[in-house]
Amino acid sequence: MAAETEVKLVGIFGSPYVLRVKIALALKGVEYENLEEAFGTKSEVLVKSNPVYKKMPVLIHNGKPICESLIILQYIDDVWSGAARPSIVPSDPYDAAMARFWSHYADDRWFPSFREVVRVETREAKIDAAMEAIARLQPLEEAFEKQSKGKHFFGGETIGFLDIALECFLADDVVKAVLPEVDAIVGFANKLQPIYNSPRPSTTN
Predict the structure, then answer these.
(1) Torsion of CA 11, 17, 21, 23, to 10 degrees
(2) Residues 109-125: what's their mean pLDDT?
(3) β-pairing, 7-11 with 33-36?
(4) Any idea where the GST N-terminal domain is (predicted)?
(5) Which pLDDT belongs to residue 1?
(6) Which of 80, 166, 184, 190 could form a disulfide with 180 if both were Cys (CB 3.0 to 4.6 A apart)?
(7) Can you tell me the distance from the alpha carbon of 126 to that of 149, in angstroms, rounded to the nearest whole number?
């Protein structure tokens, strides 16, 4: 497979979509250059690398950009494979399809409902949004029971595609080394509050 000649990651601090990619690279043992975007801006590198959506993250491998976090996870697993590197996508075609399905469900249904809890202002609205987020989490819990086969992760004994998509394995040493401190995440969330309350589109995916 392709050598790690040049690997760069365009992203912003605290984004769960960017963290997905950082976790996958860490699990695979891939060294990369972190090109962190300034909050509220879009650099020339970002616009050039993702001219269609202009969103983060973007993985640049040997000068070639790959966009959309879930697509990047698949790319990382395809490129940096082998016995010495853990697989992210399940080897069984059905399990792999289910991992992709529920990852897209999380992005399409659960994450938006979770963000709504932050976006709304009144206590009553936050309670309603939280109840909706919990309701949309139920199918994921049922999927975990089926996909995990009684193991610790969606991928079984090891962290897999859907685990990374949901970041639901915070006790893992590799993951803890990548995730930012809680206080830093809170500060980032405070910066996001006015963005969630505005009609502007998201800058990460």
Answers:
(1) 120
(2) 80
(3) parallel
(4) 5-84
(5) 42
(6) 184
(7) 34
